[in-house]
Write a structure and sequence with these properties.
409 residues, 12 helices, 13% strand, globular, binds pyridoxal-5'-phosphate
Length: 409
């Protein structure tokens, strides 16, 4: 791992060479990377203009090599490096994930997807009859069903109606009442890419003594995040979209100050400190940090891949990644407008994200999407509109291919 190279050219081979037992080196420093060298590590880029990273992002060679390095270790050594894996994941990988989002390593738990993090909060809090949860009425279902299911405890939802595709902080403030325990929302909306004002929302929740739970899967990996400047209690994101990490990986963040308010809804041998003393049953104390939410062995192969993906983001720099992505969506919007398309995404600078939705009364999005795919351009259809979501491996040429593949209006 000390050989992690800035240009990444041989990184796949290097990852393969390193058995997991050598993963204990001090490698938290990630050298600076450049966009072109990183893009060369995405085989999909040679074939397609892949603009659908908000659905499932493609994996790069380093991510696959890291995942394979872990599998090779289990093939060759069975369980023998188990303590090393656990230490590496706990100390090194969590430290890097924490750095990416401005958190502490002890506030990070591995989960298998965003939904698992949201469900952990819904099923873990000690609800009382008459409590309510404030929720925008255009959330992804993962951030709806877990709250609907609390009706059996007498917990209700107070919906915030979107206004022109936006959720103003003032509308959230109006929805909060005496019995509101928690506000839960997507930092970036999946359907139109609206970016919430996280700072104002977290300040509002802090002032009103309400917990704040964030679905950040459409934010992390595209936009920079510094949780140390926000009062967010819980936050979850899967690895398979903007992180360009393996499916089945995800992160659940639990603010240190909120830890005591969330008893783990699932417990197992990993929830407590003495995981090797299997017959010494003792559930009087959980592991000190968010690690208590990991009930058992986690998806280590996927997590090793996620670590490589996080290294790439840190090497490029989260702010530079954000600038790159917002630059691509801005220029795409300008070109699309000039060709007669209408932009559906909220478009004030503070409301923009990596997602861009567009439409025309003269075109059927559902019919266009397969035609674009056949032309080597991958987009999504959400809410009857075309949605693109370029990542750091995309460039102006990919946008150009999209423009050329679209019909003229
Ligand atoms: C806003 C939002 N939340 C949650 C999900 C589901 O993510 P996961 O599969 O990680 O639970 C999606 C997937 O499209 C999403 O867009």
């Amino acid at each position: 791992l000390e050989d992690w190279e800035p240009n990444l050219l041989h990184i796949a081979d290097l990852w393969r060479e390193h058995a997991v037992k050598s993963f204990v080196g001090e490698d938290t420093e990630v050298p600076a990377l450049d966009f072109a060298s990183v893009a060369a590590q995405f085989p999909i880029k040679r074939k397609r203009a892949y603009l659908n990273n908000a659905s499932i992002g493609p994996m790069s060679e380093p991510v696959i090599a890291a995942l394979n390095a872990f599998l090779d270790d289990v093939r060759d050594n069975g369980r023998n490096n188990y303590p090393t894996w656990c230490r590496y994941a706990e100390e090194q990988i969590k430290a890097r994930v924490a750095r990416l989002i401005g958190a502490r390593a002890s506030e990070i738990a591995f989960v298998k997807n965003t939904t698992e993090g949201l469900v952990t909060v819904a099923n873990g809090l000690d609800w009382r009859e008459g409590d309510n949860v404030v929720l925008p009425r255009f959330e992804y279902p993962s951030n709806v069903y877990c709250w609907m299911r609390l009706a059996r405890f007498g917990v209700s939802i107070r919906w915030v109606e979107p206004q022109d595709g936006r959720v103003p902080v003032g509308a959230i403030a109006e929805a909060i009442d005496r019995r509101t325990r928690l506000v839960s929302l997507s930092a970036v909306q999946f359907s139109n890419g609206f970016r919430h004002d996280l700072a104002a929302t977290s300040e509002l929740c802090r002032e009103r003594g309400v917990l704040l739970n964030i679905d950040a899967i459409q934010w992390v990996g595209a936009l920079a995040l510094n949780l140390s400047e926000l009062a967010v209690d819980f936050l979850s994101f899967g690895g398979h979209k903007w992180l360009l990490a393996p499916i089945g990986t995800g992160i659940f963040y639990c603010n240190t100050n909120a830890l005591d308010r969330l008893p783990p809804p699932h417990v197992g041998y990993h929830s407590v400190e003495k995981s090797e003393a299997h017959l010494d049953y003792d559930l009087t104390a959980y592991r000190p940090g968010a690690a208590r939410f990991e009930a058992a062995l986690e998806n280590f192969p996927g997590i090793w891949g996620l670590d490589a993906a996080v290294k790439i983001l840190l090497g490029l720099g989260p702010q530079r990644v954000q600038d790159h992505i917002l630059g691509l969506t801005a220029s795409a919007a300008e070109d699309l407008r000039s060709r007669g398309w209408r932009i559906a995404s909220p478009w004030k600078p503070s409301e923009r994200s990596g997602l861009l939705s567009f439409f025309s009364a003269a075109a059927q999005a559902e019919q266009l999407e397969p035609r674009l795919r056949a032309a080597g351009v991958d987009v999504a259809v959400r809410d009857g509109k075309l949605r693109i979501s370029p990542s750091y491996f995309n460039d102006r040429q990919d946008i150009q291919r999209l423009l050329e593949a679209l019909p003229s209006l």
